[in-house]
Amino acid sequence: MSTARERVVPKQEVQRISDPLRPEPSKIPAENGLAFARAYARLSEAISHHAGYTLVTGPAGVGKTALVRQVLAEAPVSKAVFASPSTHTPGQIARELAGIGERADGGRLRRALVTRVERAKVTGRPLVVIVDDAHTADLGWLDAVRLTLEAGPDASEWIRLILVGRPALIEMLGRPQARGLWTRV
Asked: The whole model's pTM is what?
């Protein structure tokens, strides 16, 4: 006969113990289920380990931005900047990422970005730029963002660009004029 006391485990705890990877229900419908878990895992992997650009596409209101915000809340990043084509210029995005003021000239901006990239390299924590509603941008704006963020020799390896938008974004990036962007996705 055992002297240890047995504990009766409530049914709710049994489910959690038997399925520790089961995500908690979310208030955002798109976050419930296997599709969200897969998207979360793929985006986490892309941010942590893959140089280049990442597309997050889906219909309006499906939870694309919520997914990105949730992943970034737990991802090991040096800095994350959320931007939109309607509210940010490519220069504003770069200045925010570099952590310098609006009046910084091109040389100072480039040096500050190179310093941030070097810091990201040392810590192993990438810099992340998220362009929300990227489907509303024109190709010139997106290409200017790309060129602005390629500030130094290691920038493309340590700056992650996440383009979040509706499915039209894929079609837009498939155009011949988007070759500079598409080759990095």
From this structure: 0.78
